[in-house]
Amino acid sequence: MMANLPADILVELEQAVAACPPDRCARILSGIVQLLTGHRDRPQELLARVVDGVLLRLTERVEASALVQLSTALAELKVAPPETLQRLASHDDPDVACPVLLKSQVVSATDLATIAGSCGERHQRAIAARNSIEPEVTEALIKRGGPICLALIKNPGTQFSEAAYAALIARADPDGEIAKALVLRPGTPDLVVRKLLSPKAPAKANASTVPPAQHAAPVPPKLPCPADYASARPEIVALSRVGKLNDSTVNRFTIRGETANLFTALSVLSGAPIEIVEHVMTDDDCEGLVMACRAARLNWATTLAILSNRSGARLSFVERERAQQIFETLLLSTSQWTVRWGEIAASANPNDPGHRGTKMGVNR
Fold it and tell me: What is the spatial distance between Cα 91 and Cα 23, in angstroms, rounded to a whole number?
């Protein structure tokens, strides 16, 4: 498709607005895009507004392929015809709308939120993949539900308001992906994480239930009594025998606060006595607990959930980085030996009055 020179385009504009064949409209449309993109010395904002009305009328008379080209070109501009851009962004055809929804910095957050409230799935995914997403757009997408919530959580450019966090908490199944993704996302407020991991987390929540993040004093977990262990062990052993004592099961015990089941599961999976599991769960240093989880062949997501849930307070960024580094560098054999017979086992010896304060310092 040959494009007109800018001087020729300006002469043809009035004729194009009235009526002309679709192929001629497409030719003029291409020339206008050249005006907007190829002449950086012109006052771009003024030019964009001058041609906005013409572009609007031309978009009604060209094929979808021409609109896709127009959308792709305008999406890259820092200054673009606003009404034309808005029409393209709200177009029913995702091939036309998605380039603008994904990349354009000219479309306002208000327009994006409005589109997000009624658009199709491909439109939603394009908005959720933007480099930066305003809180009101995030809220509008969360209301749509479904996989788009996960896409927002995994996008580091998404901005969450208190209302958005509350809506996600209300949607989060404790065993599901939303809770896991939010817990693992850097920057999620501590209070949100505690609500997700708490066994008493409400099924419904609103913005008033999510005040600004604040630090709470760690609360050591209440240790189960022998009767609790005796009740839990038959089920845990049975799950282990049929291959169902896995990350998903342990994560469920953690999130629901089923302490006896969790401790017994760690003991069975790692081969460590229950006294050692109690010791590493109550120790101030996370290293022993990370070793126990590694010895139990749990993955990092489950290990992080256990670390976060044991005291009711989220790990700091530095603590989490250290714990993950330990987890990723530990050998399975080293972890298993240490929690069964090594220094952790020795430090957990109830006959040693000072065992609670012993640090491991194991070579990895």
Answer: 21
Cα–Cα distance for residue pair 184/251, rounded to 1 Å: 13
Residue 213: name the closest of 305, 294, 316 by CA: 316
Which helix (H) or strand (E) segment holds residue 9: the answer is: helix 6-18
**209: DSSP letter:** G
Supply the Cα-derived Rg of the chain in whole angstroms.
29
Eight-class DSSP state of 212: S
Neighbours of 339 (CB within 10 A): 32
And the tokens for 220? 């050591």
Minimal CA–CA distance to 284: which of 218, 223, 345? Answer: 218
- Specify whether the CB–CB gap between 88 and 96 falls below 8 A: yes
pLDDT tens-digit series, residues 256-298: 888 999 999 999 999 989 998 998 888 888 888 999 999 999 9
- State pTM to two decimals: 0.51
Extents of the domains making up the chain: 7-97, 108-197, 226-348
**What's the whole-number mean pLDDT along residues 306-328?**
78
pLDDT digits (tens, 9 = 90+) for 297-312: 999 988 888 888 776 5
For 115-152, give the DSSP string.
HHTT--HHHHHHHHTSS-B-HHHHHHHHHH-TTHHHHH
Contact of 115 with 89, CB cutoff 8 Å? yes
The answer to whether 266 and 293 are in contact (CB under 8 A) is yes
Within 10 Å of residue 114's Cβ, how many Cβ atoms?
17
